Each structure stands twice: as C-alpha cells, then as structure tokens.
Amino acid sequence: MKVLLLQDVYKLGHAGDIKKVADGYGRNYLIPQKFAVLATPSAIKQIDSIKKQADSIRSQLNTEMQSLSEKISNSWIAFPCKAGETGKLYGSITTQMIADAISAKIGATIDKRQIDAQPIRTLGEHKVSVRLTVDVIPSFTVITHREGEKPVVEETTEA
C-alpha cells in the first residue's frame, strides 16, 4: 500500500513523503491516526503544501527544543542498585525510571517512549539518547553503582 505521510513518523519518513507500507500498518495505524492518507493522484497534488507546512513546524519545534537539548546533553543520572559479584543488577533500570529521573533533573516532562535505550542490567556508565524531535536527539550518561558506594563520574571532554 502506498501512503502519503501527513506528519513526520519516526523510523518511516517526513511529512510529504510517499512510502510503501504494509497494508495492515497503513490501514490500522497510519490512516486512523491521521499520520497518512492513501497516495491517490489528488493527494499527490498536495505534496508541496504539506512539505512546506511540515518544514515550518519542524524548524519551530527544533528551535524550541534546542535549549532543552543542551540541558539534557550536559547532565548525568546516578542510580544506586543492588548487584551481584559479577556486576549484574538484581532487577533493571527501566526507561520509565530514566524518564522520571531526567524529568526531575531538568524540570521538563520526558515520556518513556522518547528514551532510546534497553533496560540497563549491569553496573557502570551507559549512554542513553532522548528523542525530542526527529532531528534533535541529545544523549546523556546513566551511571549505575552499588548501594552504599559513591558513583564514579568521569568528566568527558569532547573536541
């Protein structure tokens, strides 16, 4: 099924793109959520206006999220955990826990679906990315350490 995207869809494309998708994905998700319409000749005539509108919205969002991105990329979060002798955690640090902690630290709401990471199950430093918009994806450090110990924060200097 060919669809014309009306909005940016993560891992699929930008607004105004014509994409070939599975029938069920288009019929059950993209079209009912108003993310896309069928790529008919009349819909294809509207590509230019859709792209212009989406570009202006995208640039406005990117400028708004830039200051938030700077706050996130300059931060780190430490989680005290119980762990075995090999450094494997008893349990895991989930994306919900990471989202709650970073939201409290920077003072803005971050949803767990914006966090690009698997659950953390080992001690140490882990790089985690936050998808604020399609183009703005800052990353920060999550440090897991044993309960009762101080977290070891390595200051990284980037060139």
From TrEMBL:
Cellular-component GO terms for this entry: ribonucleoprotein complex; ribosome
One biological process term in Gene Ontology: translation
Keyword Oxidoreductase annotated: no
Gene Ontology molecular function: any one: rRNA binding
Entry-linked InterPro entries: Ribosomal_bL9, Ribosomal_bL9/RNase_H1_N, Ribosomal_bL9_bac/chp, Ribosomal_bL9_C, Ribosomal_bL9_C_sf, Ribosomal_bL9_N, Ribosomal_bL9_N_sf
UniProt keyword terms in alphabetical order: Ribonucleoprotein, Ribosomal protein, RNA-binding, rRNA-binding
Domain Ribosomal protein L9, chain residue ranges per copy: 13-40
Family: Belongs to the bacterial ribosomal protein bL9 family.
General function of this protein: Binds to the 23S rRNA.
PANTHER family: 50S RIBOSOMAL PROTEIN L9
NCBIfam families in the cross-refs: L9
Full protein name: Large ribosomal subunit protein bL9
Lineage of the species this protein comes from: Bacteria, Bacillati, Chloroflexota, Anaerolineae, Anaerolineales
Gene that produces this protein: rplI
